[in-house]
Design brief:
Layout (H helix, E strand, L loop, with lengths): L3 E5 L4 E2 L2 E2 L1 H13 L4 E3 L12 H15 L4 E5 L5 H14 L3 E5 L8 H12 L5 E6 L1 H4 L5 H10 L3 E6 L4 H10 L5 E4 L5 H6 L4 E4 L6 H12 L3 H17 L7 H9 L16 H18 L1
Parallel strand pairs: 1-4, 1-10, 4-5, 5-6, 6-7, 7-8, 8-9, 9-10
Antiparallel strand pairs: 2-3
Helix pairs in contact: 1-2, 2-3, 3-4, 4-6, 9-10, 10-12
């Protein structure tokens, strides 16, 4: 069962190439902070603008750097079932512990099409699989009926990253999914309410910057210390919102660059933050860092 905090890693660039030392340093900081897992090559990792070779290399770097000290859940989804199968098999060969499968985007399949897409991937791999429901980006919603049908037929489909923004959806999935199936929050700002109705973790963007605090937040809630977790949520809530004042991962990489961890470079069609939003983010970070010491 997947539980805890999984960091949706950014992919550092330098001169439009993958900055391997920066990526390795980022992973080491995650592990030292007690993160349960890392997720390379997801939305936050700018997967749409990575070549197939770069995707392979980033996953390979993540597995080699982690060395079994945390789980590696590789982003292998695609709107092409053939490509998703190929990416997932490749991640398995590299040594990833699991795969994150975003809903097929742009082509807007039916629920039956979604079921067959994920079923085909499950039948082609032995990895544990995490569905990724983010209708705001994909234009399609993986309905609860489809999730339950998949989880019941394919035990290797072990979790869903739920980014629909719906507490009702989480409640329904927790009630109906098989024992051992995990619901993970896909939005930092909704982790607390999702946990309150039965989710057991988060795939977090904010933990790129504050891995210790986000891991502690989730761990406290799962240990029954809801009020302590709520206080951490309240302290970080402004950052939960401001890291998404522009398209992810632009604000996160900007903030990491201010720390000297990497450049803020993103690939087109993403671009740098506006001056106004950058000032807003900097003020929020400075306030938070004063509070956390």
């Amino acid at each position: 069962m997947l539980r805890g905090t999984f960091t949706a890693l950014v992919t550092p660039f330098k001169d439009d190439e993958i900055d391997e030392p920066a990526f390795e340093r980022l992973i080491e900081k995650q592990i030292a902070a007690g993160i349960n897992g890392i997720v390379p090559v997801g939305t936050t990792g700018e997967s749409p603008t990575l070549s197939c070779g770069e995707r392979h290399h980033v996953i390979e770097l993540a597995v080699e750097t982690a060395r079994g000290r945390c789980q590696v859940i590789a982003g292998t989804g695609s709107n092409s079932t053939r490509d998703a199968i190929a990416h997932t098999k490749e991640a398995e060969t590299i040594g990833a512990d699991g795969a994150l499968l975003v809903a097929p985007y742009y082509n807007k399949p039916s629920q039956e099409g979604l079921f067959r897409h994920f079923a085909a991937i499950a039948e082609a791999t032995s990895l544990q699989l995490v569905l990724y429901n983010i209708p705001g980006r994909c234009g399609v919603d993986i309905a609860a009926d489809t999730v339950v049908r998949l989880a019941e037929k394919y035990p290797k489909i072990v979790a869903i990253k739920e980014a629909s923004g719906s507490v009702d959806r989480v409640s329904e999935l927790v009630r109906r999914a098989p024992d051992g199936f995990s619901v993970l929050s896909g939005d930092d700002s909704l982790t607390l309410p999702f946990l309150s109705v039965g989710a057991v973790g988060v795939v977090s963007v904010v933990s790129n910057l504050f891995p210790k605090e986000i891991a502690q937040f989730v761990r406290l809630f799962l240990e029954g210390k809801a009020e302590e977790a709520r206080r951490i949520h309240a302290r970080f809530y402004p950052l939960f919102k401001d890291l998404f004042c522009e398209p992810n991962p632009v604000p996160a990489k900007t903030a990491l660059a201010w720390r000297g961890a990497m450049t803020s470079d993103v690939r087109l069609p993403l671009c740098e933050m506006t001056a106004a939003n950058a000032a807003r983010l900097r003020a929020t970070l400075e306030s938070l860092e004063r509070e956390t010491g």
